[in-house]
Write a structure and sequence with these properties.
By secondary structure, this protein is of the alpha+beta class. It is 25% helix and 44% strand. The protein has three helices and nine strands, in the order E-E-H-H-E-E-H-E-E-E-E-E. The strands form two sheets. Strands 3, 4, 5, 6, 7, 8 and 9 form a seven-stranded mixed beta sheet that branches. The chain has a two-stranded antiparallel sheet with strand order 1-2. Strand 7 (95-105) and strand 8 (111-115) form a beta hairpin. It is globular. 20% of the residues are buried.
């Protein structure tokens, strides 16, 4: 995985998307939640209407989802502004899936919105 850093004139701070993705590979839910905005939203890729909000709900969801994945590998990271796309492949219940996850950052550089686009759906 590429080392993504956000820099300013004085210090380098870890990029929230890179931190989130690295933590997802090891199912480190605390590290994933640590880069989320307190009012983060995740739109369900299953229904499109269901929205999970806040770090408490996302902690449960992330634990469940990423705990069920096997062989998660991030392949591409696109964008360097407040909207990013992270592309991955993994296996769940013996099926190979891919995801192009759109991630939006807040003004503080934390993850404010996650929109997964998983494929294929059976």
């Amino acid at each position: 995985m590429t080392d993504h850093k956000k820099t300013d004139s004085t210090t380098a701070t870890p990029d929230a998307v890179a931190t989130f993705c690295a933590a997802a590979q090891t199912n480190d839910v605390d590290a994933m939640v640590g880069v989320l905005s307190p009012d983060v939203e995740l739109r369900s890729p299953l229904s499109g209407r269901m929205i999970f909000r806040g770090t408490t709900d996302l902690r449960i969801l992330l634990f469940t989802v990423f705990g069920g994945l096997r062989g998660l590998r991030w392949q591409d990271f696109l964008g360097d502004g407040q909207t990013r796309v992270a592309v991955s492949e993994a296996r769940v219940a013996g099926f190979r899936i891919s995801d192009a996850m759109v991630i939006e950052l807040d003004d503080a550089g934390r993850i404010a919105r996650i929109r997964p686009h998983l494929r294929p759906w059976l």
